[in-house]
Structure formats: structure tokens, C-alpha cells
Predict the structure.
Amino acid sequence: MIRKELVAASAEPLILSLLAKGESYGYAIIQEVKARSDGKLQWTDGMLYPVLHRMEHRGLIKARWGESETGRKRKYYSLKKDGKTAMAKHHEQWSLVHSVLAGLQKEQYV
Amino acid sequence: MLAAGIKTPVPLEELEIHLREEIGQQIKSGLSEHRAFEISIQRMGQPETLKTEFKKNEGIAMKTIGILAIVAGAIIILWILAEHPGAAHVSRNEQMEWLFTGGAVVFFGLCNAFFYFEAGDSRNVRRWKITGTAYSAFAIWLSAVPMMLFLTVPKFSAAVGVTERIFVFAALAVNLLSILGWKKCRAILPVVRNQRTRTMVGTAGCFLGLIFVALCFFMTPLHFSIGIILLTWTLAMASVLGGVGYGLENAALKENAVIDS
């Protein structure tokens, strides 16, 4: 299981990247993250919502109430312009961390 | 969630929808209704933790309201002060009323902006932060009136020389920096472990500040320029004394954080 600090730090870039593919809702976001990480990246379900609301307050994403295929009420989130910029920054920073780590790991095996 | 204190309709509704989806999914996978409910509730997380997280969002909203109120209050004050010298249509009483209204709005804004600023901090630090900020806001507000008098009214302006002006502005700077100072000084402040002692020292600082201001008001200044220096520096001292409690709580909190980690 991934450490909770890393889970918390990766929440925003993951949400932004998922929403960049199209609008989505809380439950689906959690399920997709779980599936993409083979269940290794698990959020406490309820904790996603304060994060989403915070991102909405900061103008990164926007929300609208809609309905599911079965007529159930749902709150859909989508990316805003500032969210796209924030996502690009996150990608840049995470890539940098990844490349430094990968480089160091490579050196260990030389 | 209601029991945990999450009462705002939007998060509650959203959490409820999520819970229903999760329960539905669990039932589909073959679990009994009762078991599905238990697992889904568990996955939602601790209600208290959730409440704290949602509170942080309230803090952001209140901070925005606070900043808007500060801007609105400042506009009212600046407008009435700019009108001051030649505003024949606004009576002196009306001017004072508007100034107090502006001051009240700024104070409300400062309370919101600072009170919720660090929602994760201990309650005592926040309580003392608001007290210190209130002292500073009050002192800045009271200093602004005589300052604007000598800046805008020629009769008073002539009575205040360069040295006096430097003293007055220095007092205002001390005033403005006092809260920041107490925050930054926590590393060099003594760590008072006893909560009651901290509260007593903080409260004594507040009272001392008020006594200073009251004494200054009762003393009749011999000259306008001496009076204004005395008043602004007394207010600056009150502002600094009002922040003692905040500084001590901050220092104690830092010590606790080191121990906890």
C-alpha cells in the first residue's frame, strides 16, 4: 500500500488528470484511480469530496448537478482553464521528481 | 455525518449519493445489505476527520468574505477621509458614523480572514490570534483618524514637523507589524508549558494595553504634535501587548509539534 502522505500529495494531480479526459463524479473518480493503480492507491472515499470542493473554491474545477443513466442525482466535475494550467505544472514537477529518482536508481545498478 | 457536525446540505447530499452508489455496488458483488452498508460506511472515513476537512473549506470561503469586507471597509474609510476637508454636504457627525461603519466592516473582515486562516491550528492559537489582530485593527483604526487630520487639514498639518511625522509613521509601522512579529518571534519566545499561565500573561497584556490607551486619552496633550505622537505610540504599545497571548500560544504550539513528531 502507498504511504498516506504520497496518496494525499498525488490527489490533486490525479483528479486534474482524470477530469482532463472529461467530466466525472466523485464515485467514478475513486473507482478509476483504484482500477488504474490495481487497488494500490486507495483513498478514504469521503476525503475526496473536501478535496474536490477545495479545488472548486480555488477555481481549478467547476461543478454541476446532473443525473445518471438511471435518473439518480449526481454532481459532475469538470476542468477549468486554471485547472489545466495547474495540471501542466503538476506534470512538470512530478516528471522532474520521477526523472531524478529514476536516474539515481539507474546509478545504483551500474 | 450529521452527528459529526457536517450540516451543510451540499457535502451531505454528495456523501449520501456516494454512499448509495457504493452500497449498490457492494450488493451487486453479492454482499448482504447490512454488510454492504457496514463496509461502505467504513470506506467513507472517520466522521470527525471528514468534518475537519470540510471545515478547512469553510475557512477558505470565510477568508474570501473577510478579504472582500476589508476592501469594502477600506473603500468607505478612504472615501470619507478623502471627502473630509471640503465635504460641505457631509456633516461631521455623518463623517464619524461612516468612519465607524468602515472601521467595523474592516474589523469584521480581519476577524474572518485571520480567524479561519489556519483552520488546522489549535483553538487557543486561533483565539489569541483573533485577540491580537483585534487589538492591532483597533489601534490602526484609532491612529488613522489623527493621522488623516494632519495629512489633510492645513491647520493641523502646519503644527506637525518632519520629526514628529517620522515618529507617528514609525508607530503605525510597529502597529502593523506587531501581529507578524509575534508570529515570527515564536522561536525566541519562552515556552510556557502551563496553559493557565499563558492565558493569564496574555490577558494581562491585553489589560495593560487598554490601560495605556485609557491613560493616554485622559491625559491632555500640551501640544497637538506631542499629543499625536503620544497617542500613536500608546496605540502601538497596546497593539504589541495585545499580541503577547498569541506569541506565547504560538511558541507553545511549536514546542508541542516538535514533541509530537
In short: Residues 13 and 91 of chain A are 7 Å apart (CA to CA).
